[in-house]
Hints:
Radius of gyration: 23 Å
Distance between the termini: 45 Å
Strand content: under 5%
Shape: globular
Number of helices: 12
Number of strands: 2
Low-confidence stretches: none
Helix content: over 70%
Amino acid sequence: MNKLTRRKFIDxxxxxxxxxxxxxxxxxxxxxxxxxxxxxxxxxHWAFLSTVYKPGLGSSGIREIIVGTLAxxxxxxxxxxPVGVLAAIYMAEYAKKGKVLSTIRxxxxxxxxxxxxxxxxxxxxxFVIQCALGFSLIxxxxxLAISVSGIMVLPVIIRSTEEALFTVxxxxxxxxxxxxxxxxxxLFRVVLPCAIPGILSAIILSMGRVMxxxxxxxxxxxxxxxxxxxxxxxxxxxxxxxxxxxKEGLNxxxxxxxxxxxxxxxxxxxxxxxxxxxxxxxxxxxxxxI
Length: 290
């Protein structure tokens, strides 16, 4: 076997291994989805979606829990996204390369590796007890957005936004500056519109992380199965509700139905965010998606 034939064989073998690994990953995902959806869909009905959860009275509806989950996502992203995006802008556009920037990136990425239960205990001690916010939506959102999953979400937002900014060609910046625009104008009128798809991808990943978080929400938002009347009201997310159903050994069909609704909401929010990303990108770039 000559060198050329050997190189082609190695390339083909590597390609087959890559496809095989990808197929295995997709296969496990499909297996999980089929397992959950096949047991959850038959247990979903209108009463389940439209009534209030009152187990002692025989009501297993999750309407209030869905509202609480969506409120938690919205408030968390409202806090985390500006912080993450602005931090990424500083790191990509303003910070000078060197030890300081490397240290910041190392710290940001290290935060994602800390177990969420530790952040949950911190949120419980600081926001719930020390700040006297109690078990509430605001305690959970602050924990998720600033100290718990938010610091797990922030690395996703920061790094993804930073990479999206790096993909914008420098010629765009140079052309804008050459025409007399300031650096800030170039950033908001040229660079950010081109990076919007990548930024929204980071937000999509963050939404999934927030919806799937259990420990942090359990210790800060409480377990009240009702829609929050204000940011100081206790509530329960779908992930926490699913955990409690399994923990208490209640109706498994209801647990699978809750998991199915959780999957549907995540997919729906992802699709909506992707649609908004395309429309916004076309609008900001003169009708041409980048």
